Amino acid sequence: MNTPAVELNDQEGKPGTALKSTLKRAQKLLQQKKSNPDKAIKLLTPLIRKKASHWAALHLMGMALIKKGDLQKAVTFLKRAVDQGSTTTATHLYLSICYERLQKYEEAEKWVHKVIEEEPDHFKAWMHLGSIYKNRTELNKALQCYKQANQIDPKSAEVALKIGEIYQNQGMGDRALDMFDIVLKMDSGNPQACLKKSQIYKLRHQLEEAEQCLMEAKISNGEIQIEKAIQISLAEIRKARGDYSESIRIYEDLLEKYPSLSEARSNYANCLKDLGHFDQAEKQFLRATEDKAGLQQPLSSYLMALHYNPGRTRDEIFEAHKLWDKHFAPKTRPKRPTPADLYPDRPLRIGFLSGGFRRHPVGWMITAGLEHLDPGQFQLYFYTTHNKIDGLTKRLHQISTKWQPVTGFKDEVIAGMIREDQVDILVDLSGHAADNRLKVVALEPAPVTVKWVGGLFNTTGLQSVDFLITDRYETPSETDQYYVEKLVRMPDDYICYEPPEYAPEVGPLPVERNGYITFGCLNNPTKVNPELLKRWAEILNRIPNSRLFLKSRQYEHKDLRDRITKNMKGYGISDERIQFEGHSPHHELFEAYNKVDIALDPWPYSGGLTTCEALWMGVPVVTLPGPTFAGRHSTTHLINASCPEWVTQSVEEYIEAAVHLASEKDQLTKIRSGLRRKVRESPLCDKERFGSHLGAAFREMWGQRAAVIESKEVMERQEWRVPIDISLLV
Predict the structure, then answer these.
(1) Buried-state track 84-117, b at ≥16 Cβ within 10 A, e below 16
(2) Measured between alpha carbons, how far is 648 from 643 in angstroms, rounded to an integer?
(3) In this structure, CATH architecture of domain 510-685
(4) Do 375 and 399 touch, CB atoms closer than 8 A?
(5) How many CB atoms lie within 10 A of CB 205?
(6) Structural domain boundaries of the chain?
(7) 3-state class of 496 per DSSP?
(8) Using 50, 70 and 90 to split pLDDT, how confident is the model at 106?
(9) At the top level of CATH, which class does the domain 242-328 belong to?
(10) Is 214 in contact with 194 (CB distance < 8 Å)?
(11) In this model, does residue 497 exceed pLDDT 60?
(12) Is it true that the peptide bond before 604 is cis, omega within 30 degrees of 0?
């Protein structure tokens, strides 16, 4: 922050020579490249002790305190400067800046308007007002402010960058790219514009263009933060291209130079996890959490990583989930809003917070069910943390009462919006997955908070979450003790699967044309561990000439392929019996199931959406339930698709089930020809039934909370929440 020069030659309240000299010395200390606010404060302190302190001394004291980060004290002195007749608009502007940083946006807006009233063409004031509106998620107002600043200074690259960022936050990628190109015409190689362009291209999976943007960035001396951000982005692009070795090299170089760079360490840990180095990854995640207080994604990633590691027990994992509240829950528990209308049968406002309102596992599992909620009973509010728009996004938008993008906004701002919208039940659909907003959930902005789908692999561990939507197969009755939430058990599956319209027809049984059985797994390779490979090798050894087909983006990486083939070779499976394929667009991914006779579910982290897709393509899935919620997705999907015979209870049963299916080609043919119809007619895809059950669940959760509020009793969370079995209510 630059300290503007204060004009000391005003006639009214003109300082004497000695005072003027002291003020100039203090001002110089604050303006120099390496400012010295402590020395400036020492110079100014004798001047402000006087009853009639000169406004300039008070103003400069405020500026020194801003540089030290003591914003509340800075406000006190800047206000005193105003009371003493400050003649510079800078006092008003920096009062506004302080209030914005303190997240007191109404006060911030009031003071910056005073600057604009006095100087309508004050460039910095318009830019700052735009920042206030952006923080308040009033993007159109922010855009108008930046356009006004552009009128004042049409050649400002800073303004063009801000306008581009607004377009980017509004999901208008093409318009954002145009603005960033304008920035680069005015300021060739502007690193922020290059970084922003790269982010847009990466989201579009235009990885070559994304990397080229980063290569064009010109980083000046001192721009350490932007240099770090560009290196991290480059590593992530290399990872997305399947070049894990290069991504890891970049991260290791960065961490050698900046060992406390938590973002880089967390991403580095993700690379290790993807390659199956679970123990190393867990250590890196925990160190990243310790290195930067307040950065919660490394801990969420750590909790997810535990579920991939076959060496972790259910008790260990449950205890680990308690770490989230220990590190990140507010020290003072927030007071939840109390609705004015507690009538149990009134229309309810249900808020959904996620980045998955699109062709994403969340989108495929919630859209049909939400479309079949009674619109007269439920008003749906969507807070989206992702700007991508596709067919599923448009369908969800159509049933929304409010659609609010919140990409890039502070947790407190999002929580404030949810409170202002008077949401009755907030449903989190990200959990501990990447880019989650669990800190919003921890601020308790709604009377009831629920976890459902999206990063749902276990308890959240958050005391702020009241209920978790599940079913009796995902969470058998004996598992309640492993959840901090009360469980809401649906009568059927906890999700409603809707296959995409572009799914191809089911093809003939592959063994008929190949002459050998093909076992397949199209899951995230992180789920494929040495213990699982040992089981798969036994199956392949029992079925002569059979093949194993593995498909995912990570298989484009040679080190990962080599790790798997080396393991399998140790169990007597030669390289030619293992077939790898890399990434495909979703419609081509479905076509890949026409190469698979039998799908082998991974363990201890099972398939979810992949299991539904395999069944839709006529492929039976053999599963062994794992120790946690993450390990039981396939179990519930298979049972609710009327295929319980493929759910096994031991390693031996798992192997025998796969071998038995492979030995019965006629039965496989029959399964393949009838499985899609069977799935379509099952509870797994019954959207009307699911929508009715989901509505009953929301109504019951609300009823519990409303009864407690209405009774005016002070009750602890565990005293008012009661587990819910929807099958008893419908």
Answers:
(1) bebbbbbbbbbbbbbbbeeeebeebbebbebbbe
(2) 11
(3) 3-Layer(aba) Sandwich (3.40)
(4) yes
(5) 12
(6) 17-184, 242-328, 348-496+694-728, 510-685
(7) coil
(8) very high
(9) mainly alpha
(10) yes
(11) yes
(12) yes
pLDDT tens track for 537-548: 999 999 999 999
CATH number of 17-184: 1.25.40.10
pTM (whole model) above 0.85:
yes
Residue the block writes with tokens 């040495």: 530
Token reading at 502: 């572009």
Sign of the Cα torsion 342, 344, 347, 353 reads positive
Which residue is associated with the tokens 């596992």? 361
Q: Over the stretch 553-580, which tens digit does the pLDDT of each residue have?
A: 888 888 789 989 999 999 999 999 999 9
Q: Tell me, what's the pLDDT at 282?
A: 97
DSSP string, 596-621: -SEEE--SSS--SHHHHHHHHTT--E
Determine the average pLDDT of the residues in 652-662. 98
Residue pLDDT, tens place only, 362-395: 999 999 999 999 999 999 999 999 877 889 999 9
Tell me which architecture the domain covering 348-496+694-728 has in CATH: 3-Layer(aba) Sandwich (3.40)
Do 260 and 292 touch, CB atoms closer than 8 A? Answer: yes
Q: In CATH terms, are 17-184 and 510-685 the same topology? A: no
Query: From CA 122, how far away is CA 99, in angstroms rounded?
Result: 19
Rounded to an integer, what distance in angstroms lies between the CA atom of residue 567 and that of residue 532? 10
Provide DSSP, 630-662.
GG-HHHHHHHHTT-GGGB-SSHHHHHHHHHHHH
Half-sphere exposure of 135 (CA within 13 A, CB side): 18
Mean pLDDT, residues 479-491: 97
Say which amino acid occupies 517: I
Q: What is the pLDDT of residues 308-333, one digit of tens each?
A: 999 999 999 999 999 999 999 999 99
Tokens at residue 483, please? 């959840």
- The residue type found at 353 is L
Do residues 216 and 249 make contact, with C-beta atoms less than 8 angstroms apart? no
